[in-house]
Protein backbone atom coordinates (compact mmCIF):
# COMPACT_ATOMS: atom_id res chain seq x y z
CA UNK A 1 0.00 0.00 0.00
CA UNK A 2 2.78 2.43 0.97
CA UNK A 3 4.79 1.43 -2.08
CA UNK A 4 1.77 1.99 -4.33
CA UNK A 5 1.26 5.47 -2.85
CA UNK A 6 4.97 6.31 -3.30
CA UNK A 7 4.82 5.15 -6.94
CA UNK A 8 1.72 7.27 -7.45
CA UNK A 9 3.40 10.35 -5.99
CA UNK A 10 6.52 9.70 -8.06
CA UNK A 11 4.54 9.36 -11.26
CA UNK A 12 2.59 12.52 -10.43
CA UNK A 13 5.83 14.45 -9.91
CA UNK A 14 7.14 13.22 -13.25
CA UNK A 15 3.91 14.28 -14.97
CA UNK A 16 4.02 17.71 -13.28
CA UNK A 17 7.69 18.16 -14.23
CA UNK A 18 6.97 17.23 -17.84
CA UNK A 19 4.05 19.65 -17.88
CA UNK A 20 6.25 22.46 -16.54
CA UNK A 21 8.90 21.73 -19.17
CA UNK A 22 6.22 21.71 -21.87
CA UNK A 23 4.81 25.03 -20.67
CA UNK A 24 8.30 26.55 -20.63
CA UNK A 25 8.96 25.34 -24.17
CA UNK A 26 5.66 26.79 -25.37
CA UNK A 27 6.45 30.06 -23.58
CA UNK A 28 9.92 30.17 -25.10
CA UNK A 29 8.49 29.70 -28.56
CA UNK A 30 5.55 32.06 -28.29
CA UNK A 31 6.23 34.95 -25.87
CA UNK A 32 8.70 36.81 -28.10
CA UNK A 33 6.60 35.98 -31.18
CA UNK A 34 3.60 37.58 -29.49
CA UNK A 35 5.61 40.61 -28.32
CA UNK A 36 7.45 41.38 -31.56
CA UNK A 37 6.27 39.37 -34.57
CA UNK A 38 2.50 38.90 -34.30
CA UNK A 39 1.83 42.65 -34.56
CA UNK A 40 3.58 42.74 -37.96
CA UNK A 41 0.68 41.01 -39.67
CA UNK A 42 1.57 39.35 -42.95
CA UNK A 43 5.07 40.90 -42.79
CA UNK A 44 6.02 38.33 -40.15
CA UNK A 45 6.14 35.70 -42.88
CA UNK A 46 8.85 37.58 -44.76
CA UNK A 47 11.13 37.97 -41.72
CA UNK A 48 14.58 36.40 -42.00
CA UNK A 49 15.00 32.92 -40.52
CA UNK A 50 16.22 32.83 -36.94
CA UNK A 51 15.36 32.32 -33.32
CA UNK A 52 14.47 35.01 -30.78
CA UNK A 53 15.58 32.88 -27.87
CA UNK A 54 14.15 33.03 -24.39
CA UNK A 55 11.32 35.38 -23.37
CA UNK A 56 12.54 38.93 -22.77
CA UNK A 57 16.27 38.06 -22.54
CA UNK A 58 16.27 36.72 -26.08
CA UNK A 59 19.62 35.44 -27.39
CA UNK A 60 21.80 37.30 -24.89
CA UNK A 61 22.64 34.27 -22.74
CA UNK A 62 23.82 32.26 -25.75
CA UNK A 63 25.72 35.31 -27.02
CA UNK A 64 27.49 35.89 -23.71
CA UNK A 65 28.13 32.18 -23.22
CA UNK A 66 29.81 31.94 -26.63
CA UNK A 67 31.89 35.10 -26.19
CA UNK A 68 33.03 34.04 -22.73
CA UNK A 69 34.18 30.68 -24.12
CA UNK A 70 37.17 29.90 -26.33
CA UNK A 71 34.92 29.83 -29.40
CA UNK A 72 33.01 33.12 -29.75
CA UNK A 73 32.01 32.33 -33.32
CA UNK A 74 29.90 29.40 -32.10
CA UNK A 75 27.11 31.95 -31.47
CA UNK A 76 26.64 32.76 -35.15
CA UNK A 77 27.60 29.24 -36.28
CA UNK A 78 24.51 27.97 -34.45
CA UNK A 79 22.31 30.21 -36.64
CA UNK A 80 24.08 29.06 -39.82
CA UNK A 81 23.81 25.36 -38.95
CA UNK A 82 20.10 25.65 -38.07
CA UNK A 83 18.87 28.04 -40.74
CA UNK A 84 21.41 27.83 -43.56
CA UNK A 85 23.84 30.43 -44.89
CA UNK A 86 21.28 33.13 -45.65
CA UNK A 87 23.53 35.98 -44.48
CA UNK A 88 20.69 37.50 -42.45
CA UNK A 89 19.01 36.21 -39.25
CA UNK A 90 16.35 37.44 -36.83
CA UNK A 91 17.21 37.51 -33.11
CA UNK A 92 16.41 39.36 -29.88
CA UNK A 93 19.60 41.16 -28.86
CA UNK A 94 20.22 43.79 -26.17
CA UNK A 95 16.49 44.00 -25.48
CA UNK A 96 15.47 44.71 -29.07
CA UNK A 97 14.09 42.69 -31.98
CA UNK A 98 17.04 42.56 -34.34
CA UNK A 99 18.33 41.29 -37.64
CA UNK A 100 21.98 40.17 -37.77
CA UNK A 101 23.62 40.84 -41.16
CA UNK A 102 26.73 38.81 -41.91
CA UNK A 103 27.84 39.20 -45.55
CA UNK A 104 29.86 41.96 -47.23
CA UNK A 105 26.88 43.03 -49.33
CA UNK A 106 24.37 43.25 -46.47
CA UNK A 107 26.87 44.88 -44.10
CA UNK A 108 27.85 47.48 -46.68
CA UNK A 109 24.24 48.32 -47.47
CA UNK A 110 23.27 48.82 -43.83
CA UNK A 111 26.33 51.01 -43.20
CA UNK A 112 25.94 53.20 -46.30
CA UNK A 113 22.17 53.59 -46.77
CA UNK A 114 21.49 56.62 -44.55
CA UNK A 115 18.01 57.04 -46.00
CA UNK A 116 16.86 53.69 -44.62
CA UNK A 117 19.10 53.14 -41.58
CA UNK A 118 20.05 55.31 -38.63
CA UNK A 119 22.18 54.64 -35.53
CA UNK A 120 20.54 52.05 -33.30
CA UNK A 121 22.84 51.53 -30.34
CA UNK A 122 21.44 49.90 -27.18
CA UNK A 123 20.14 52.20 -24.44
CA UNK A 124 22.95 51.10 -22.12
CA UNK A 125 25.60 52.14 -24.66
CA UNK A 126 23.92 55.51 -25.28
CA UNK A 127 23.77 56.26 -21.55
CA UNK A 128 27.48 55.47 -21.13
CA UNK A 129 28.84 57.14 -24.27
CA UNK A 130 26.42 60.07 -24.07
CA UNK A 131 23.10 61.09 -25.61
CA UNK A 132 24.76 64.06 -27.29
CA UNK A 133 27.66 62.12 -28.82
CA UNK A 134 28.01 61.22 -32.49
CA UNK A 135 26.42 57.79 -32.10
CA UNK A 136 22.98 59.36 -31.56
CA UNK A 137 23.16 62.51 -33.69
CA UNK A 138 20.81 62.83 -36.69
CA UNK A 139 22.57 62.49 -40.05
CA UNK A 140 22.77 66.21 -40.94
CA UNK A 141 24.00 67.28 -37.49
CA UNK A 142 26.51 64.44 -37.39
CA UNK A 143 27.88 65.32 -40.83
CA UNK A 144 28.26 69.01 -39.97
CA UNK A 145 29.85 68.55 -36.55
CA UNK A 146 32.14 65.77 -37.70
CA UNK A 147 33.42 67.96 -40.54
CA UNK A 148 34.12 70.82 -38.14
CA UNK A 149 35.78 68.78 -35.40
CA UNK A 150 37.60 65.90 -37.07
CA UNK A 151 39.97 68.10 -39.07
CA UNK A 152 42.44 67.68 -36.19
CA UNK A 153 42.77 63.93 -36.80
CA UNK A 154 41.84 63.25 -40.43
CA UNK A 155 44.33 62.72 -43.22
CA UNK A 156 48.01 61.88 -43.06
CA UNK A 157 49.10 65.38 -44.06
CA UNK A 158 47.31 66.90 -41.05
CA UNK A 159 48.55 64.17 -38.74
CA UNK A 160 52.17 64.62 -39.81
CA UNK A 161 52.42 67.61 -37.45
CA UNK A 162 51.94 65.17 -34.54
CA UNK A 163 54.42 62.57 -35.81
CA UNK A 164 57.39 63.97 -33.87
CA UNK A 165 55.39 63.99 -30.62
CA UNK A 166 54.17 60.44 -31.24
CA UNK A 167 57.67 59.17 -32.02
CA UNK A 168 59.28 60.86 -29.00
CA UNK A 169 56.74 59.29 -26.68
CA UNK A 170 57.07 55.86 -28.31
CA UNK A 171 60.86 55.93 -27.88
CA UNK A 172 60.76 57.13 -24.26
CA UNK A 173 57.99 54.66 -23.33
CA UNK A 174 59.78 51.65 -24.82
CA UNK A 175 62.96 52.62 -22.98
CA UNK A 176 61.07 53.08 -19.71
CA UNK A 177 59.29 49.72 -20.01
CA UNK A 178 62.59 47.83 -20.36
CA UNK A 179 63.48 49.04 -16.85
CA UNK A 180 60.14 48.21 -15.23
CA UNK A 181 60.56 44.45 -15.12
CA UNK A 182 57.28 42.60 -15.45
CA UNK A 183 54.58 44.70 -17.11
CA UNK A 184 51.08 44.34 -18.54
CA UNK A 185 52.06 45.17 -22.10
CA UNK A 186 48.52 46.01 -23.25
CA UNK A 187 47.92 48.28 -20.25
CA UNK A 188 51.14 50.23 -20.87
CA UNK A 189 50.47 50.63 -24.60
CA UNK A 190 46.94 51.87 -23.88
CA UNK A 191 48.36 54.46 -21.47
CA UNK A 192 50.72 55.63 -24.21
CA UNK A 193 47.99 55.92 -26.88
CA UNK A 194 45.79 57.75 -24.40
CA UNK A 195 48.55 60.25 -23.68
CA UNK A 196 48.94 60.87 -27.43
CA UNK A 197 45.23 61.37 -28.05
CA UNK A 198 44.97 63.69 -25.05
CA UNK A 199 47.77 65.81 -26.48
CA UNK A 200 46.10 66.04 -29.88
CA UNK A 201 42.66 66.87 -28.54
CA UNK A 202 43.45 68.86 -25.39
CA UNK A 203 47.05 70.05 -25.99
CA UNK A 204 48.27 68.88 -22.60
CA UNK A 205 47.22 67.72 -19.18
CA UNK A 206 49.21 66.66 -16.15
CA UNK A 207 50.42 63.05 -15.87
CA UNK A 208 48.28 62.24 -12.78
CA UNK A 209 45.12 63.58 -14.47
CA UNK A 210 45.84 61.55 -17.61
CA UNK A 211 46.40 58.33 -15.64
CA UNK A 212 43.21 58.87 -13.66
CA UNK A 213 41.24 59.57 -16.83
CA UNK A 214 42.65 56.51 -18.58
CA UNK A 215 41.60 54.25 -15.68
CA UNK A 216 38.08 55.66 -15.83
CA UNK A 217 37.99 55.19 -19.60
CA UNK A 218 38.96 51.55 -19.16
CA UNK A 219 36.07 50.97 -16.76
CA UNK A 220 33.71 52.83 -19.09
CA UNK A 221 34.79 50.83 -22.13
CA UNK A 222 34.40 47.46 -20.39
CA UNK A 223 30.75 48.26 -19.71
CA UNK A 224 29.71 49.64 -23.10
CA UNK A 225 28.49 46.27 -24.41
CA UNK A 226 27.53 44.81 -21.04
CA UNK A 227 23.94 44.08 -20.05
CA UNK A 228 22.30 47.03 -18.32
CA UNK A 229 22.49 45.78 -14.73
CA UNK A 230 23.14 48.77 -12.46
CA UNK A 231 24.10 46.71 -9.39
CA UNK A 232 27.54 46.74 -7.68
CA UNK A 233 29.75 44.01 -9.09
CA UNK A 234 28.44 44.26 -12.66
CA UNK A 235 30.39 45.89 -15.50
CA UNK A 236 27.61 48.35 -16.36
CA UNK A 237 27.45 49.66 -12.77
CA UNK A 238 31.20 50.26 -12.70
CA UNK A 239 31.06 51.89 -16.14
CA UNK A 240 28.20 54.19 -15.07
CA UNK A 241 30.24 55.36 -12.06
CA UNK A 242 33.24 55.91 -14.35
CA UNK A 243 31.13 58.09 -16.66
CA UNK A 244 30.07 60.27 -13.72
CA UNK A 245 33.71 60.72 -12.71
CA UNK A 246 34.72 61.54 -16.29
CA UNK A 247 31.92 64.10 -16.60
CA UNK A 248 33.15 65.82 -13.48
CA UNK A 249 36.75 66.00 -14.70
CA UNK A 250 35.78 67.18 -18.19
CA UNK A 251 33.44 69.83 -16.84
CA UNK A 252 36.36 71.31 -14.92
CA UNK A 253 38.51 71.16 -18.08
CA UNK A 254 35.81 72.95 -20.10
CA UNK A 255 35.37 75.59 -17.39
CA UNK A 256 39.11 76.18 -17.21
CA UNK A 257 39.43 76.44 -20.99
CA UNK A 258 36.57 78.96 -21.21
CA UNK A 259 38.29 81.03 -18.52
CA UNK A 260 41.66 80.95 -20.32
CA UNK A 261 40.07 81.91 -23.64
CA UNK A 262 38.50 84.98 -22.04
CA UNK A 263 41.88 86.06 -20.71
CA UNK A 264 43.84 85.48 -23.93
CA UNK A 265 43.56 83.89 -27.38
CA UNK A 266 44.94 80.33 -27.56
CA UNK A 267 48.33 80.04 -29.29
CA UNK A 268 47.63 76.48 -30.40
CA UNK A 269 44.13 75.38 -31.40
CA UNK A 270 43.01 71.86 -30.54
CA UNK A 271 39.80 69.82 -30.59
CA UNK A 272 38.48 71.54 -27.45
CA UNK A 273 38.85 74.96 -29.11
CA UNK A 274 37.02 73.69 -32.21
CA UNK A 275 34.11 72.47 -30.10
CA UNK A 276 33.92 75.72 -28.13
CA UNK A 277 33.92 77.77 -31.35
CA UNK A 278 31.56 75.75 -33.53
CA UNK A 279 28.07 77.18 -34.11
CA UNK A 280 25.12 76.30 -36.34
CA UNK A 281 23.50 78.46 -39.05
CA UNK A 282 21.48 80.28 -36.38
CA UNK A 283 24.57 81.11 -34.33
CA UNK A 284 23.84 78.51 -31.62
CA UNK A 285 26.94 77.17 -29.92
CA UNK A 286 27.32 73.73 -28.37
CA UNK A 287 26.28 73.29 -24.75
CA UNK A 288 28.76 71.93 -22.21
CA UNK A 289 26.93 68.58 -22.29
CA UNK A 290 27.32 68.35 -26.07
CA UNK A 291 31.01 69.31 -25.93
CA UNK A 292 31.78 66.78 -23.20
CA UNK A 293 29.88 63.91 -24.86
CA UNK A 294 31.65 64.47 -28.19
CA UNK A 295 35.04 64.65 -26.44
CA UNK A 296 34.34 61.49 -24.43
CA UNK A 297 33.43 59.65 -27.60
CA UNK A 298 36.47 60.84 -29.54
CA UNK A 299 38.96 60.16 -26.74
CA UNK A 300 37.62 56.69 -26.02
CA UNK A 301 37.60 55.67 -29.69
CA UNK A 302 40.96 57.34 -30.31
CA UNK A 303 43.09 55.22 -28.02
CA UNK A 304 41.33 51.88 -27.50
CA UNK A 305 41.69 50.51 -31.04
CA UNK A 306 45.29 51.67 -31.58
CA UNK A 307 46.38 50.27 -28.21
CA UNK A 308 44.88 46.82 -28.77
CA UNK A 309 45.93 46.49 -32.41
CA UNK A 310 49.52 47.53 -31.56
CA UNK A 311 49.74 44.79 -28.94
CA UNK A 312 48.23 42.12 -31.21
CA UNK A 313 50.49 43.13 -34.13
CA UNK A 314 53.54 42.51 -31.94
CA UNK A 315 52.02 39.27 -30.63
CA UNK A 316 51.52 37.93 -34.17
CA UNK A 317 54.91 39.12 -35.43
CA UNK A 318 56.68 37.30 -32.62
CA UNK A 319 54.60 34.17 -33.26
CA UNK A 320 55.79 34.30 -36.89
CA UNK A 321 59.55 35.01 -36.98
CA UNK A 322 59.56 35.07 -40.80
CA UNK A 323 57.14 38.02 -40.81
CA UNK A 324 59.03 39.75 -38.00
CA UNK A 325 62.26 39.45 -40.01
CA UNK A 326 60.61 40.81 -43.16
CA UNK A 327 59.16 43.75 -41.22
CA UNK A 328 62.56 44.45 -39.66
CA UNK A 329 64.32 44.38 -43.04
CA UNK A 330 61.79 46.85 -44.44
CA UNK A 331 62.37 49.26 -41.55
CA UNK A 332 66.16 48.90 -41.81
CA UNK A 333 65.94 49.73 -45.51
CA UNK A 334 63.92 52.87 -44.71
CA UNK A 335 66.63 54.02 -42.30
CA UNK A 336 69.42 53.26 -44.80
CA UNK A 337 67.79 55.60 -47.32
CA UNK A 338 67.49 58.36 -44.72
CA UNK A 339 69.68 61.49 -45.24
CA UNK A 340 72.41 61.80 -42.57
CA UNK A 341 70.96 65.09 -41.33
CA UNK A 342 67.47 63.68 -40.78
CA UNK A 343 66.37 62.69 -37.29
CA UNK A 344 63.17 60.81 -36.75
CA UNK A 345 60.40 59.48 -38.94
CA UNK A 346 58.79 61.45 -41.73
CA UNK A 347 55.38 61.12 -43.36
CA UNK A 348 57.11 59.91 -46.55
CA UNK A 349 58.76 57.07 -44.61
CA UNK A 350 55.46 56.10 -42.99
CA UNK A 351 53.99 55.75 -46.48
CA UNK A 352 56.87 53.48 -47.51
CA UNK A 353 56.01 50.88 -44.85
CA UNK A 354 54.23 48.60 -47.29
CA UNK A 355 54.70 45.30 -45.48
CA UNK A 356 54.15 46.83 -42.04
CA UNK A 357 50.77 48.15 -43.17
CA UNK A 358 49.88 44.66 -44.40
CA UNK A 359 50.73 43.40 -40.90
CA UNK A 360 48.44 46.05 -39.40
CA UNK A 361 45.57 45.25 -41.80
CA UNK A 362 45.90 41.52 -41.18
CA UNK A 363 45.91 42.10 -37.42
CA UNK A 364 42.75 44.21 -37.67
CA UNK A 365 41.10 41.50 -39.76
CA UNK A 366 41.98 38.57 -37.48
CA UNK A 367 41.19 40.41 -34.24
CA UNK A 368 38.21 42.47 -35.50
CA UNK A 369 38.40 45.05 -32.71
CA UNK A 370 34.71 46.02 -32.98
CA UNK A 371 32.73 42.83 -33.57
CA UNK A 372 29.41 44.58 -34.30
CA UNK A 373 27.81 48.00 -34.82
CA UNK A 374 24.14 48.86 -34.40
CA UNK A 375 21.75 50.46 -36.85
CA UNK A 376 17.95 50.82 -36.84
CA UNK A 377 15.62 50.54 -39.83
CA UNK A 378 13.86 53.87 -40.50
CA UNK A 379 11.32 52.08 -42.69
CA UNK A 380 10.56 48.53 -43.80
CA UNK A 381 13.63 47.36 -45.72
CA UNK A 382 13.78 44.36 -48.06
CA UNK A 383 17.19 42.68 -48.10
CA UNK A 384 18.16 39.29 -49.55
CA UNK A 385 14.46 38.61 -50.09
CA UNK A 386 13.63 39.19 -46.41
CA UNK A 387 12.11 42.16 -44.60
CA UNK A 388 13.71 44.17 -41.80
CA UNK A 389 10.70 45.90 -40.18
CA UNK A 390 10.76 49.58 -39.32
CA UNK A 391 12.14 50.10 -35.80
CA UNK A 392 14.02 46.79 -35.71
CA UNK A 393 17.78 46.87 -35.13
CA UNK A 394 20.24 45.83 -37.83
CA UNK A 395 23.40 44.37 -36.28
CA UNK A 396 26.37 44.56 -38.66
CA UNK A 397 28.43 41.51 -37.67
CA UNK A 398 32.01 42.33 -38.74
CA UNK A 399 33.50 39.07 -37.41
CA UNK A 400 31.49 37.00 -39.86
CA UNK A 401 32.90 38.99 -42.80
CA UNK A 402 36.52 39.08 -41.65
CA UNK A 403 36.55 35.36 -40.81
CA UNK A 404 34.64 34.11 -43.85
CA UNK A 405 36.72 31.30 -45.45
CA UNK A 406 35.24 32.07 -48.88
CA UNK A 407 36.73 35.58 -48.70
CA UNK A 408 39.84 34.80 -46.64
CA UNK A 409 41.08 31.18 -46.99
CA UNK A 410 42.16 29.77 -43.61
CA UNK A 411 40.68 32.91 -42.01
CA UNK A 412 42.10 32.42 -38.50
CA UNK A 413 45.63 32.08 -39.85
CA UNK A 414 47.71 35.27 -39.57
CA UNK A 415 49.11 35.89 -43.06
CA UNK A 416 50.03 39.47 -44.12
CA UNK A 417 50.75 38.22 -47.65
CA UNK A 418 47.05 37.73 -48.27
CA UNK A 419 47.04 41.52 -48.79
CA UNK A 420 49.68 41.43 -51.56
CA UNK A 421 47.07 41.40 -54.32
CA UNK A 422 44.73 43.78 -52.45
CA UNK A 423 41.74 42.80 -54.59
CA UNK A 424 39.07 42.83 -51.91
CA UNK A 425 35.65 44.18 -52.81
CA UNK A 426 33.76 46.87 -50.92
CA UNK A 427 32.37 45.51 -47.68
CA UNK A 428 34.91 42.70 -47.29
CA UNK A 429 37.20 44.66 -44.93
CA UNK A 430 35.50 46.86 -42.34
CA UNK A 431 37.88 47.45 -39.40
CA UNK A 432 36.65 51.03 -38.95
CA UNK A 433 33.05 50.53 -40.05
CA UNK A 434 31.85 52.22 -43.23
CA UNK A 435 29.66 54.88 -44.76
CA UNK A 436 29.26 58.40 -43.40
CA UNK A 437 29.88 57.18 -39.85
CA UNK A 438 33.24 55.61 -40.61
CA UNK A 439 35.51 55.95 -37.56
CA UNK A 440 37.14 59.40 -37.92
CA UNK A 441 40.33 58.34 -36.15
CA UNK A 442 41.40 55.59 -38.57
CA UNK A 443 44.34 57.49 -40.06
CA UNK A 444 45.60 58.49 -36.62
CA UNK A 445 45.33 54.92 -35.32
CA UNK A 446 47.28 53.42 -38.21
CA UNK A 447 50.00 56.07 -38.05
CA UNK A 448 50.43 55.53 -34.29
CA UNK A 449 50.67 51.77 -34.76
CA UNK A 450 53.16 52.09 -37.62
CA UNK A 451 55.41 54.45 -35.63
CA UNK A 452 55.36 52.10 -32.64
CA UNK A 453 56.06 48.98 -34.70
CA UNK A 454 58.90 50.75 -36.53
CA UNK A 455 60.86 51.21 -33.30
CA UNK A 456 59.79 47.91 -31.77
CA UNK A 457 60.85 45.62 -34.63
CA UNK A 458 64.20 47.40 -34.96
CA UNK A 459 65.20 47.42 -31.31
CA UNK A 460 63.04 45.29 -29.00
CA UNK A 461 61.45 41.94 -28.27
CA UNK A 462 58.74 41.03 -25.80
CA UNK A 463 58.86 37.92 -23.63
CA UNK A 464 55.31 36.91 -22.79
CA UNK A 465 55.02 35.37 -19.33
CA UNK A 466 51.93 33.29 -20.15
CA UNK A 467 52.06 32.50 -23.89
CA UNK A 468 49.03 30.20 -23.57
CA UNK A 469 47.01 32.69 -21.55
CA UNK A 470 43.25 32.42 -22.31
CA UNK A 471 41.72 35.17 -24.42
CA UNK A 472 38.76 37.33 -23.44
CA UNK A 473 36.52 38.53 -26.29
CA UNK A 474 34.32 41.18 -24.66
CA UNK A 475 34.29 44.10 -25.02
CA UNK A 476 37.43 43.60 -27.15
CA UNK A 477 39.71 40.64 -27.83
CA UNK A 478 42.60 40.62 -25.37
CA UNK A 479 44.66 38.18 -23.25
CA UNK A 480 43.13 37.82 -19.79
CA UNK A 481 46.44 38.87 -18.21
CA UNK A 482 46.68 41.92 -20.53
CA UNK A 483 49.80 40.37 -22.12
CA UNK A 484 51.97 40.05 -19.04
CA UNK A 485 55.71 39.87 -19.66
CA UNK A 486 59.02 41.69 -20.03
CA UNK A 487 60.28 44.03 -22.73
CA UNK A 488 63.91 43.46 -23.72
CA UNK A 489 66.21 45.58 -25.81
CA UNK A 490 67.87 43.64 -28.61
CA UNK A 491 70.00 46.29 -30.34
CA UNK A 492 71.22 49.87 -30.16
CA UNK A 493 68.52 52.44 -30.81
CA UNK A 494 68.55 54.18 -34.14
General description of the model:
- The chain has 494 residues and is an alpha+beta fold.
- It has one domain: Cytochrome p450, CATH 1.10.630.10.
- Helix content is 53%, strand content 10%.
- It is built from 18 helices and 12 strands.
- It has helices at 2-37, 60-67, 74-83, 104-112, 123-129, 139-149, 156-159, 163-178, 185-202, 207-223, 235-263, 271-277, 288-319, 321-336, 347-351, 354-367, 398-402, 442-459, and strands at residues 88-93, 96-101, 117-119, 183-184, 372-377, 381-383, 386-388, 393-397, 460-464, 471-472, 478-479, 484-489.
- The strands form 4 sheets. The protein has a 5-stranded mixed β-sheet with strand order 1-2-8-5-3. Strands 4-12-9 form a 3-stranded antiparallel β-sheet.
- It is globular and about 85 Å long.
- The protein starts with a helix and ends in a 5-residue tail after the last strand.
- The model is unreliable at 1-7 (pLDDT under 50).
Structural class: alpha+beta
Number of strands: 12
Q: In CATH's first tier, which class applies?
A: Mainly Alpha
Task: Please give the CATH architecture.
Answer: Orthogonal Bundle
The largest pleated sheet is described as: 5 strands, mixed
Oligomer: single chain
Distance between the termini: 94 Å
CATH superfamily: Cytochrome P450
Order of strands across the widest beta sheet? 1-2-8-5-3
Proportion of residues in β-strands: 5-15%
Report the C-alpha radius of gyration, rounded. 25 Å
Amino acid sequence: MVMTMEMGIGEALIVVSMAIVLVLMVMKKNVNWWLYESKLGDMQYSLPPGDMGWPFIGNMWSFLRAFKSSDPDSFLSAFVSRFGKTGIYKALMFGNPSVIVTTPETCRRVLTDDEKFQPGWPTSTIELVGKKSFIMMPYDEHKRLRRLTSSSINGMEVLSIYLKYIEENVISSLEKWTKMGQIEFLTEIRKLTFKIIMHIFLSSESEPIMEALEREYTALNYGIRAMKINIPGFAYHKAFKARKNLLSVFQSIVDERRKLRKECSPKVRDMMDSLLDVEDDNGRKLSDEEIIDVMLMYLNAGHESSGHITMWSIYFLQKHPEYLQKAKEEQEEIIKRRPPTQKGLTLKEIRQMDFLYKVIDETMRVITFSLVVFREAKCDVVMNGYTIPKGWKALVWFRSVHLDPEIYPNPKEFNPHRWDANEHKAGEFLPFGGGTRLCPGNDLAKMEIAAFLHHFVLNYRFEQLNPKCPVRYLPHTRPMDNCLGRLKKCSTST
